Amino acid sequence: MRAIIKNDQVIDDQWTLLSAEADLDEALRTEQAIIPFALWQEHKSQLQAVKPLGVWLESNQAVEDLAEDLAYFSVVALNFPVFTDGRHFSSARLLRERYAYTGEIRAIGDVARDQLFFMQRCGFDAYAIRADRCPVDALQSLTDFSVTYQAAYDQSLPLYRRRTA
Fold first, then answer.
1. How many Cα atoms sit within 13 Å of 141 on the Cβ side?
2. Domains in the chain, please, with CATH?
3. Rounded to whole angstroms, how far apart are CA atoms 58 and 80?
4. How far apart are CA 57 and CA 12, in angstroms?
5. Where would a tag sit more exposed on the chain, N or C end, judged by fewer CB atoms within 10 A?
6. How would DSSP label each residue in 73-87?
7. What's the CA gap between 155 and 87, in Å, rounded?
């Protein structure tokens, strides 16, 4: 079982991330599956009764296309295909702030220690670190900074407003 970071601790991952080539049969027989968004779109009527269920989005897929169906998912995983692709930072904020999603938002793909603090500020609460990196070491990055200047999902006021309050 793979270790992930969730809610500020390293735990064994209870979910199975299905590949982009997964089919409906595989999704139905896998407990706690995180399925590709394309599979959800194709077989939505058959998958609506599966509980718990997760979905993952590629970096070029928009959370707006998933918004009406968020109630079906316990986990929304956002794939970072390469370290330099930051589009899903915005996706996490949209899920939390615009769509009031309260389930798990997980970063998957090319996820490294340097990103975690900023991902957390955007609304992520789970991270599947790259296989060649240590999740225990990466966990420490969530406490790299004690003060933040900018407003974000995790702190609605910028520092100058907090000082005057």
1. 20
2. 3-164 (3.20.20.70)
3. 7
4. 22
5. C
6. -SEEEEEESSTT--H
7. 21
Burial of 102 (0-12, 13-18, 19+ CB in 10 A): exposed
Nearest to 101 by CA among 71, 64, 58: 71
pLDDT in tens, 7-63: 999 999 999 999 999 999 999 999 999 999 999 999 999 999 899 999 999 999 999
Residue with tokens 């968004």: 37
The token pair that represents 107 in the structure block: 């970063």
C-alpha to C-alpha distances, 76 to 15, 56, 65, 91, 160, nearest whole angstrom: 12, 6, 13, 10, 33
Q: In sequence order, which ranges of 30-145 are alpha helices (DSSP H)?
A: 37-47, 87-93, 113-122, 135-139
Contact 109, 87 (CB under 8 A): no
